[in-house]
Amino acid sequence: MRRPFIAGNWKMNTTKAEGVALVKGVAEGNTAGDSVEVAVCAPSVYLDAVVTAAAGKVGVGAQNCYHEASGAFTGEISAAMAKDVGCQYVILGHSERRHIFGESNADVCKKVHAVLAAGLVPIVCVGELLEERESGKTSDVVAEQMYGSLAGVTDEQMKSVVIAYEPVWAIGTGKVATPEQAEEVHAGIRTLMTAKYGEAISEGVRIQYGGSVKPDNAAELLSQPNIDGALVGGASLKADSFLGIIAGAN
Ligand code: PEP
């Protein structure tokens, strides 16, 4: 059985005080216990404070990192730095990184290797644009992103990878994919993983859905056989709504 994994992506939001209060609210209100894995991915400047406030009750992740270990890369953070302040996860290849900052699958792949080498869990995002879905290219786009972003990842490493399927047209738009639409792509992603890593590994990898997940649509999405959690943007910025989504996974 795959343990559901609900992660919040705060993006470039909150003050330090708000972030600290938010993670405390999640930690205090979470009644799911060990049955659901829960994490928040905070802005990098607040990670240290959020890890301290989480007090080990909620996992913490970075929203991105650079692939090099250290050096003259102004403005970047390394996977080792995220680990050093107590993160367990790093979101990689989020659609905003791909489409606003121009990250390619090759860029994401280098970061995946850096994150795995640091002993952290990469949450690798894939997902199609609206025009790609409308022209029937969803499965090709997702396959290219999956194989491109995970090139060179070994069987052993794949066991700690989390995939997030996030259709770009559903992110921050309020247009959630139907459970059937999401499940179709999730099942396709698992088939791609089985082809590359075999069934035993593929069956253990969690695939989160992301794109306008809210307390009132979470349970139905999460009841699909290949939807193993959620990556949540807007609704992760309020403890109550994030807790409502966690409850939907339980
Ligand atoms: C996201 O940023 O990964 C996301 C899914 O955002 P939202 O939940 O706001 O659509």
Indicate the multimeric state.
single chain
Shape: globular
Classified by CATH, the class is Alpha Beta
Helix content: 40-55%
Percentage of residues in strands: 5-15%
Features:
alpha/beta, TIM Barrel, 8-stranded parallel barrel, 12 helices, 43% helix, binds phosphoenolpyruvate
Task: Describe the fold and architecture.
With 250 residues, the chain is of the alpha/beta class. It has one domain (5-248): Aldolase class I (TIM Barrel, Alpha-Beta Barrel), CATH 3.20.20.70. The chain has twelve helices and eight strands. An eight-stranded parallel β-barrel has the order 1-2-3-4-5-6-7-8, surrounded by six helices. Helix 7 crosses helix 9. The protein starts with a strand and ends with a helix. The chain binds phosphoenolpyruvate. Phosphoenolpyruvate (PEP) binds at residues 9, 166, 171-172, 210-213, 231-235.
Strand and helix layout:
Layout: E1 5-9, H1 16-29, E2 37-41, H2 47-54, E3 59-62, H3 79-84, E4 89-92, H4 95-99, H5 105-117, E5 121-126, H6 130-134, H7 138-149, H8 155-158, E6 162-165, H9 179-197, H10 199-202, E7 207-210, H11 215-222, E8 229-232, H12 239-248
Parallel strand pairs: 1-2, 1-8, 2-3, 3-4, 4-5, 5-6, 6-7, 7-8
Helix pairs in contact: 1-2, 1-12, 5-7, 7-9, 11-12
